[in-house]
Design brief:
6 helices, about 190 residues, alpha/beta
Amino acid sequence: VFRALWDKRAKTPPPPVSASPFDTPPPLPLALTPLVGREADFAGVLGALMNHRLVTLTGLGGVGKTALAQTIARWAWEEDHAKSKTPRGVPYVALDALSSGRELADFVRRNLLPDSPPPATADENARQSDAVRVIADALNSGARLLVLDNFESTMDDAGAPLALDFVHSLVAATSDAVRVLVTSRRALNLA
């Protein structure tokens, strides 16, 4: 079932891939135990990713959002690299080190594209717009799925609007072949 869902979505041919910064497996911690009893959740998330470009896993801390997202990221990368002639990456960014959504765009940029210099401006909106453009270009050329884990750390009062705008703008700037999976204790309420 899982392969059929992923294969169906993958039939849209991605643009030709040259050297991508996402050619290596996502930097995930070693799974010490398998995801047990979550097959329906796994299938449900894959189904949602088939039909929506942005999917958010929400719930209380400790319910397994991160474990499920990591399992999906690992599986998606392995499936794509085992079957595709032009495999695409699955970048994974853990956001738990952030204390404000004001830092999100630069943080994601540094994590995904460490050699990409940020713009020389202090204006948050200009920095974010530039980050969205650079990240979207990279994702469009070499990624199938971006995972943003622990998004709630960006939802402080001052930074939440910027963080939500970043995700919304990034999804809008990427191709239909790219999906974004977010884990958060709070719903994003983005359409």
